[in-house]
Write a structure and sequence with these properties.
By secondary structure, the protein is mainly alpha-helical. 61% of the residues lie in helices and 0% in strands.
Length: 145
C-alpha cells in the first residue's frame, strides 16, 4: 500500500486532524507523518520480522522508551514522549525520510510523531497487545469499522 493511502487511513484513525490544524492524512498531518514512518519501517528488511508496528515498538523499547511504549499498548493512561526522545529512538535515515515525504523538517516530524504516536498505538492495540503477523493496514481498517 502506498504511504499516502496508509497516511489517509491513519488520519481517519486519529480523527482526521492534528493539533497543528493540518488534516490527518494531508501534507504534514499526523496521519501523513505516521504513514511515512510506518511505511519506512515496513520497507526495511532484516529488522527482526513482524509488521511495522511491532518493529517500531521494539525500536522504542530498545532506545529506553519502555514505559512509554508499554503504556500506549496497555489499557491504562498513555505516557507522553517528546520529539527529542523520538529523534533519538529512530534511525537518522528513517527520520529524514519521513520528514522528506511529509514535507516538514526532521524536528517537526519528530514532534508530530511524539504527539500522535501514543494515540495511534493505543487505538491499534485495543486488547493491550501488539497483534503479531498482521499488516498495519489491516489493523487500521479493523479499528475504523
Amino acid at each position: 500500500m502506498a504511504g499516502n493511502d496508509l497516511g489517509s487511513l491513519l488520519g481517519g484513525l486519529l480523527g482526521g486532524s492534528d493539533r497543528s490544524g493540518g488534516q490527518g492524512g494531508g501534507p504534514g498531518g499526523a496521519g501523513s507523518i505516521l504513514g511515512a514512518l510506518l511505511g519506512a519501517l515496513g520497507g526495511q528488511s532484516g529488522q527482526g520480522g513482524g509488521n511495522a508496528l511491532e518493529r517500531l515498538i521494539g525500536m522504542l523499547t530498545r532506545s529506553g522508551l519502555v514505559d512509554q511504549a508499554h503504556s500506549w499498548v496497555g489499557t491504562g493512561e498513555n505516557q507522553p514522549v517528546s520529539g527529542a526522545q523520538i529523534a533519538q529512538a529512530l534511525p537518522d535515515e528513517t527520520l529524514r525520510k519521513v520528514a522528506r515525504e511529509a514535507g516538514v523538517s526532521t524536528e517537526q516530524a519528530a514532534d508530530q510523531i511524539a504527539r500522535s504516536l501514543p494515540t495511534a498505538v493505543d487505538r491499534l492495540t485495543p486488547s493491550g497487545e501488539v497483534p503479531e503477523g498482521r499488516s498495519i493496514e489491516d489493523l487500521v481498517r479493523e479499528q475504523q469499522l
